[in-house]
Amino acid sequence: TNLAGRIRNHLARKKVRFFKRVMFWLYRSELSRVGFDRLYREDGSEAAYSADRILALGDQRFEFPRSWPESLRFIGAKLYHPPSPNRVEPEFLPDKRHVLVTLGTHLHWHKDSVARIVREIAERRPELVFHFSDGDMAASAMERLDNFQRLPYIDYGRFLHRYDLVVHHGGAGIMYQCLQLDKPSIVYPIDYDQFDHAARIEYSGRGIWIRKLAELEPALNSMTSGQQRPKSST
């Protein structure tokens, strides 16, 4: 949005292209044997991607404004609900607003600290009910304390529509589930493409991107007080 940002992005693109050119040169013999004699075509597109058809598992309305290769077609997100043997179900209380907190099926090393902070917030927000999912279908242990429930696994296909707000890590699965149901989100990315997803969610007005856990409660207060209401995905 400003000169500093444009310079940063320009340098980042140069860095990525330099890395790709170095790797292509290092493995030029191997790549040549499988039909790649150059990294970029004359039009600047990468030879590794099809010039005939590229199928993108996403929604163009959710992308940053930019140009796309002629061969690219967006075919939408492919949502999947794995069958769960876990029969521990979340408890929904009447006349309460419910918040789902999920970090997906990995990131086990970080879940205890996030759950502890959510439990502390729940003590200060008795008008809300917090459900924390461990994302572990094999687990059976659970915790229920007044308006805080920590459950082994919550089936998005069965229960996501019942939540008023979702706090998640920006994984592709939960992100597109929330977009499909028009659920407002607070996104706390941890690794890989989650930061990119968080930036897109905030840019499109469908949620708030927090950089650290200390920002969770202020973001939650903003979302539940009506100060921040993400735009409809439709």
Offer a concise description of the structure.
The protein has helices at 3-26, 28-33, 108-124, 156-159, 172-181, 194-203, 216-224; strands spanning 54-56, 72-74, 97-102, 128-133, 143-145, 148-151, 165-168, 185-187, 207-209. With 234 residues, the protein is an alpha/beta fold.
Topology:
Blueprint: H1 3-26, H2 28-33, E1 54-56, E2 72-74, E3 97-102, H3 108-124, E4 128-133, E5 143-145, E6 148-151, H4 156-159, E7 165-168, H5 172-181, E8 185-187, H6 194-203, E9 207-209, H7 216-224
Parallel strand pairs: 1-2, 3-4, 3-7, 4-6, 7-8, 8-9
Antiparallel strand pairs: 5-6
Largest sheet: 7 strands, mixed
Distance between the termini: 25 Å
Assembly state = single chain
**Average residue pLDDT:** 91
**What is Rg?**
21 Å
Summing up helix and strand content along with how strands pair, one would put the structural category as: alpha/beta
Describe this structure in words.
The chain is α/β, with parallel strands linked by helices. It contains seven helices and nine strands, in the order H-H-E-E-E-H-E-E-E-H-E-H-E-H-E-H. It has helices spanning 3-26, 28-33, 108-124, 156-159, 172-181, 194-203, 216-224, and strands at residues 54-56, 72-74, 97-102, 128-133, 143-145, 148-151, 165-168, 185-187, 207-209. The strands form two sheets. It has a seven-stranded mixed β-sheet with strand order 5-6-4-3-7-8-9, with helices on both faces. Strands 1-2 form a two-stranded parallel sheet. Strand 3, helix 3 and strand 4 (128-133) form a beta-alpha-beta unit. The longest helix is centred in the N-terminal third of the chain and has 24 residues, at 3-26.
